[in-house]
Specification:
Shape: elongated
Distance between the termini: 89 Å
CATH architecture of the largest domain: Alpha Horseshoe
Radius of gyration: 34 Å
Structural class: mainly alpha
Helix content: 55-70%
Oligomer: single chain
CATH superfamily of the largest domain: Tetratricopeptide repeat domain
Number of domains: 5
Low-confidence stretches: 1-69
Strand order of the largest sheet: 1-2
CATH topology of the largest domain: Serine Threonine Protein Phosphatase 5, Tetratricopeptide repeat
CATH class of the largest domain: Mainly Alpha
Mean pLDDT: 85
Number of helices: 27
Length: 512
Amino acid sequence: MKRVWRISEFTKTEHFLQKCGKNTNKSISKPLPPISFIREHVTQAPDIGAGQTPSFSDIISLFSDKWKYSSAETSLKKDLRKKVSVLKDEILSQNDDVEKIERVLDENGVVLFRSYSDGSAVVELLTQLKHFPYVAMEVFSWRRKQLDYAAPMTAAEYAKGIVMAGRSKNVDLAIELFKEASNKQLKATSLFNALMSAYTYNGLAMRCQSLFRDLKMEPTCTPSIITYNILISAFGRLMLVDHMEATLREIKDLNLTPTVSTYKGVIAGYITAWMWEEMEKTYRTMKAGPIKPNIDIHLLMLRGYAHSGKLEKMEEMYDMVRAHMDYKEIPLIRAMICAYCRSSDVAKVEKVEELLRLIPENEYRPWLNVLLICLYAKEDLLEQMENSINEAFERKAYVTTVGVMRCIISSYFRHNAVDKLANFVQRAEDAGWKICRSLYHCKMVMYASQMRLYEMERVLGEMDKVNMHLSKKTFWILYTAYERWDERSKLEQVIGMMCKHGYKVPVDAGNS
């Protein structure tokens, strides 16, 4: 669909021309205002239908610079990216050596940065280094020290530095940069947005809200829709749903146009708070409105359906987005696996294993390993369960809950695999897994059922070795085993021990 642009702040052509310093009573003979001026006053507008006469704003759109809005990059932007990419590669080749990095910047960076006095080259370099935060911060630190040697830093550079500091969890540095920029008379909405973003990333919602109030009182700056989006995200992360919804109402009261990011923050907030109905209601609102859900929204909804256990909708959403999923969406794959493991889907094992093939080996997670152990145990897939157990032992993963251990031994019990159970218990002891009395009782019962009484008695020594005292149930297992296999002398000994410990003796014990 073709996209066109309109002048947002001037509803009348005459008003626009006056702002440009023109006399509307005369013909337009002076040049149009600078592209940078027009770019600051354009927003998205509906398409022009066939046969319609284009308005003045439509004609202006032909000259607008779509640097940030167009999917097709301009040659100027491509040229900048190419130059910066060369510098980035040279910086990364220095193996994090600060002195060498600074030498590269001194020799090749200064000239490049001076040719882009608006700071776009520095911002682009930091953007390309986002996966190398240490190096990016070193580059930014070098840039701050070059204020007299090169061009002065711009608000855009400071905003980028504040965001980077926030992502590095260095909130103090983010605040320092904000104050430094303010002292240089560079205070702008983008700086407030950057610091609010840093606060949000570090879970400081109240400080984010306080800074938002400061912004509203600032005479030279005005909150933008980006500002409100950050605020919504901050409240959503901390499950402050009332605050989040109040912010959304304020956007509507101010007649600001919500963006995809607005709805993304709201939906994410509802997912965090497990408010599934509100999540779906917001999604339906988007589908019915002018701002349609994009791939990010669909991925978010996939997560919501996975967490809420709505498998049918989760699978429908997965079919929509699977072609767009890459390595960054591995957590979503794991969320879907969790959903299947919790479900009663008859084909859940096959579906889980299909998803597992999408997870690289270096994305191993111990908790997922344990989840698979329980899944295979409950489905009585002994071989798959033992394979997952072996992987857990090899990767030094630990099981720390009794529930998981009981799930494992129940599977061994149903398969009557006492020797495999004994081997598992020994390995679990050596690996430091959670040890419980059920492990030993299960072995005793299974040995007794096979008339392997000597091995059953040996389990008592194993219990003593791990400082696990004999309980009433232990004696009952012994009693039942000796009675079943007519071991009268040992049966009498067990009865005596039960009396000594104050446990109730079976009524027919004397007759046996």
